[in-house]
Amino acid sequence: LFEFNSPYSPRVSYHFNPKVSNYHYGVRHPMKPFRLMLTDHLVSGYGLHKIMDLYETRSATPDELRKFHSDDYVKFLSKVTPENISKMPRGTFEKFNIGDDCPIFQNIFDYSSLYAGASLDASTKLINDQSDIAINWSGGLHHAKKGNPSGFCYINDIVLSVLNLLRYHPRVLYIDIDLHHGDGVQEAFYTTDRVFTVSFHKYNGEFFPATGDINEIGCSKGKHFAMNVPLDDGIDDESYVTLFKSVIDPLITTYKPTVIIQQCGADSLGHDRLGCFNLNIKAHGECVNFVKSFGIPMLVVGGGGYTPRNVSRLWAHETGLLNNVLLPKELPDGLPFRDSFGPDYTLYPVLDDLFENKNSKKYLEDTRIRCLENIRYLQG
Ligand code: TV7
Ligand code: ZN
């Protein structure tokens, strides 16, 4: 492995459970937990498992889920099956937002408890100072609400982890680079100054979940402790990374978080099945590496990502970066599912130029200035 020079050599823990990749949302559903298996194969194929602490994770308990989610929702999720859903009281579908986005599939509660348990384990490693960076690629399901699932997310593992971290950390910074707005996390901490949430996402007032306007900045004690960076189709590497760094640098320096959670949704990459941005793997990774460079304890989670081969490429690359390793473009020998990575069979295929960049220089500059103004309020 080629280690690059860095003044910071974090202790990295990797939290995974091979079982999570076996659940199915349904044949036509874009969310494929199978992408996690591809990711784990790339990570171990490149030998990264030898330089990190590996933890096979446990399920979160119903009591742990209830730290954020309502009693009746946790009970519903633990009881519901594809067979009994039709026999539930009238109004159940509507009440719990069940439908195409959030279907009831086999063992849905085991799936949700597993990815949530992994994020909880990872956050506990940070609290106990047993690692500097804890990774859970199966987590990052940022849309789930207190009383219902939303946008492919059933349990909000991020909110649960933030609540866990808040027991010991005075200030938590949440950074979300998924294509979609991190609405569930923003909503949960909208009125507190102990959690700063910032989300970069596609926004036009309609695109799911239709929130994340630049004017959403938090309220009461939380006013100025939420930030939204709405973007249009086709944003490219240079504009995204420049904007990201120019906002995150003063934000970290001013807010002085004691711990950072970064959601690394891979649907902001070019060529994503549900996406409309033009980011390449290295640009997305540069955002993660930039946050790492501050040397603050980090919980790193996954999120969206609907072209499985690119999701796994991205998260393997980012696992490398977090370990001060730049993975070579040649895929490891004997990689299971090698066929998935054709026709180029490399780690860094070109993913740009599908969408015209609709973010003008002027729009990006205005957005940057609005964000910096929001940060200035923190100093007062
Ligand atoms: C974190 N976009 C989650 C992102 C959640 C996005 C949506 C779909 C979709 C669902 C399918 C499907 C799809 C081709 C794409 C308004 C609707 C339109 C359902 C068909 N194909 C994350 C959620 C988003 C389900 N939802 O941030 C089964 O696209 O736009 C919507 C809502 C109503 C419901 N219909 C879509 O990345 C993990 N859903 C095919 C089969
Ligand atoms: Zn998304």
- What is the level 1 CATH name? Alpha Beta
CATH superfamily: Histone deacetylase domain
Q: SSE order in H/E notation? A: EHEHHHHEHEHEEHEHEHH
| Unreliable spans | none
Number of strands: 8
Structural class: alpha/beta
In CATH terms, what is the architecture? 3-Layer(aba) Sandwich
Number of structurally distinct domains: 1
Give an account of the 3D structure.
- This protein is α/β, with parallel strands linked by helices and 380 residues long.
- It has one domain (12-379): Arginase, Chain A, CATH 3.40.800.
- The protein is built from 11 helices and 8 strands.
- It has helices spanning 34-45, 62-65, 71-79, 92-95, 108-127, 157-166, 183-188, 237-255, 281-292, 308-322, 361-379, and strands spanning 12-16, 53-56, 133-136, 172-176, 195-202, 226-231, 259-263, 298-301.
- Helix 7 (183-188) links the parallel strand 4 (172-176) and strand 5.
- Helix 8 (237-255) packs parallel to helix 9 (281-292), helix 8 packs parallel to helix 11 (361-379) and helix 9 packs parallel to helix 10 (308-322).
- The mean pLDDT is 98.
- Bound molecules: ligand TV7 and zinc ion.
